[in-house]
Amino acid sequence: MKHIEKEFFNTFTNFQCLILAHMNRGNINGVTAAHYNIIEFILRKETATGREISAAFNISQAAISKQLKFLISNDLIIKKQEETDHRKYNLSVTDKGRFIIENSETFRKNITGQTASILTSKELESFNYLLNKVLNHVKL
User: What is the reported pTM?
Assistant: First the structure.
């Protein structure tokens, strides 16, 4: 590994640790990025069904059902049976789930605000360009 690549690896690791340490402030063990995305989807829509989530994320209903069970058991979302169609369940976000999303958004605003205040406009433009370039080409 070249020296600059090693430096980048170390810097990136520190940045990743900063983000992960903040994500764990919700004290909810086992919450994954997929869980977070599901909670945020439901929050943005106010309510959603498992079928809507499955379609939106292009994931099987069985796979979504497993994720929803975790979220319900950890009081991050609640499931209520619809009054007119007892086969249908609407999902909504609890205060605990809302805290996770709002806390994460506050963190992102804080980090981007601090970054914008540290860098010049030109540096911020370059940084944004480079991040987008990486995001568009990195395959995991």
Answer: 0.68
